[in-house]
Amino acid sequence: RKLEYIKSTKDVRKYGQDMIVVRAEFQMRDQVTFVAQSGRDIWNVDQDEGYFTAAIHGRREARVLLRNNLTVAIDVEETNFVKEAPTKSKMAAAIMSSSVGRENIGQMKATGSQGRKLGNGFLEYQGIPGYSCYHTVEETYEQAARLAEDYPDLVEWVDVGDSWEKTNDSTKGYDIFVLKLTHSDIQPADGEDKPKLFLSCAIHAREYTTAEFCLRFGMHLLDGYVSGNDADSTWILDHHEVHLMLITNPDGRKKAEEGTFWRKNTNNKNGCSSSNHIGVDLNRNFAYKWKCCSGSSRYACASTYRGSSAASEPEVQALQNYVADVFPDQRLNDNNLTSPTNKNATGIAIDVHSYGQAIIWPWGHIKKEAPEHIGLQTLGRKMGYFGSYKPEQGSTSYQADGVSGDHYYGTLGVAAYALELGTEFFEKCDYFESTLLSDNIPALVYAAKVARTPYLTPAGPEVHGVSVSYLSSLVREDEFITVTAEVDDTRYNNVRGVEPSQNIASCNYYIDIPPWMDGAIAIPMSALDGNFDSTSETVQASIDTSTFSVGTRYTIFVQATDDDGNVGAVSAVFFEKKKIQKIEGTIFSGATGQGGPLQDGTVTIGAYSTQTDTSGKYSFQIPDGSYNSTIQAPSH
User: Fold this and answer.
1) Which of 59, 137, 267, 307 is the most exposed place for a label (fewest CB within 10 A)?
2) CA 379 to chain CA mean position, Å
């Protein structure tokens, strides 16, 4: 990238008060904290390379960086991009409104997007101008409402509050909704609540990926459930709940859709005289430790302005109230920073941001470690494994107060995180579709799995790659099946320290009743190499299906334990015993059979094969279904 180093404030004079994107090299973390406390708009901090990216306006803000002994350079390419983005957005919007534009977008949408198994439940959309992979606010709401309409047993679209603009004028602004995913007809037999995973998304308006990512995650789970192909998605929605506040800051988001790098909400009564800098930073406005520790700005025009009072903004009020309603209070002494939460506490809350490729946990307002630091760190390292995201405590880069994660954890004891997606605010669609989704959806699936006991389960071995196969190529109605799985106690991101790993001690499977429910029967699996003596093992078990009912789908749950007694997350696979049909016939050589019966011919039907005998005869027993067949023979 082209960098122009700043020696004095004169070097930024030509930019006037336009936004300048700079890269600042630092020697100590306190330098970053000082800049953050001054209200500057820090975009991303790279601790390993020793620099941060920030936006500044004019000579006065440049002076703050230079006086802090930072080596500062203007990122020319990014600065030009920010300046040109609104114009390009308008041009893209004009193209999208034309018939040619709509046709092109429709063609693009027909390839590659998730959600296709939902059929008519997945609506076509034009997207944000220039970034057509991302739904607009209205399109997001329309899509979510359609899912709730089409799948009422699995989806609710819940109105939980109003945006700032709607609060002040009912004819403007937006409602704030939560997309709730769970099978409403399935309730725990013990009367307890289902474990919950909660995501708040798009709290910072300019972070394009976040709302779409959360929507795609929800649709991934629904895809797996509705298609009948994904046992993990199915048991998660049957036995857990997933709550997605898709757009926490809809007023600001709408402004950012115009191509502006808008961060805050659109509160124009906050005391800022500049229309380009109004609003409150919602992620500095949470009640817990608001204004406590110089981790936010008191200046109304600053990007990290914390608001006039704790939870002054209606968006934050809606979010706090909803989270308090969803999760039980498991941390009774909120003001004691060393007061621990019950190790068996339930629930995970994740605030989804961009950018930075990091997974972050409390505390953010102070450098001190949280009482559940070890448990938070273990789950953070686990989630960081899937996309190689850096796991770290929130105050590692700089201190911030009044933030979501500290509030979720500090008031309720919920395992709380910020997930920083990707590499830029306006993430390019090809990267989002090809890399960001596949890197990060598995992390959220894992989080949904361990929401029952997030401070305990991530320390246990992970089961993955569960599959079912037959012991022979010819399937009979009394056939044994083989269940195979990989078990691993090492799948953590260890760039910020090494997570302890232990040898696998045991692995069990359960049929139809998951291990946490009454009546579950644990059946041992064996290590494929003969012994449980390693941190990773391939395990197998043979299951007699002679008593299984034909045409019934069974769920096989698999769970492992390590040598320290840590019990890991459950993974599952489906098995359906099908009616067996007999297929037999005779193969003759030659186009008209004039060559006589064909001996030693290979007859293949689907995945099954057999040889013809001396009289050219063959016979199969295979499950009901449609198959392709081939015949091969030597010299033919």
Assistant:
1) 59
2) 14
Alpha carbon distance 195, 454 (integer Å): 10
156: how many CB neighbours lie within 10 A of its CB? 18
Q: Cα dihedral angle (211, 216, 221, 223), rounded to 10 degrees? A: 150
Count CB-CB contacts under 10 A for residue 632: 10
Report how far residue 618's alpha carbon sits from residue 610's, in angstroms, rounded to the nearest whole number.
7
Q: Token pair for residue 491? A: 């799948």
Instruction: Give CA 177 to chain center in angstroms.
Output: 19
Q: Which two tokens stand for residue 446?
A: 């894992």
pLDDT at res. 110 = 32
Q: Which helix (H) or strand (E) holds 462?
A: strand 462-470
Spatial distance between the Cα atoms of 568 and 564, rounded to a whole number of angstroms: 11
Q: How many CB atoms lie within 10 A of CB 569?
A: 24
Residue 56: closest CA among 23, 93, 86: 23
Tell me the two tokens of residue 55: 């936006």
Work out the mean pLDDT of the chain and round it to a whole number: 90
Q: In 38-136, where does DSSP find H-type helix?
A: 58-66, 76-97, 99-109
Both tokens of 261, joined, read: 């790098």
Short-list 451, 462, 492, CA closest to 561: 462
CA pseudo-torsion sign 495, 501, 504, 506: negative
How far from each other are the two terminal CA atoms of the chain, in whole angstroms?
A: 62
Three-state SS for 229-292 is CCHHHHHHHHHCEEEEECCCCHHHHHHHCCCCCCCCCCCCCCCCCCCCCCCCCHHHCCCCCCCC
Mean pLDDT of 251-262: 95
pTM > 0.70: yes
CA–CA distance, 303 with 39 (Å, rounded to integer): 6
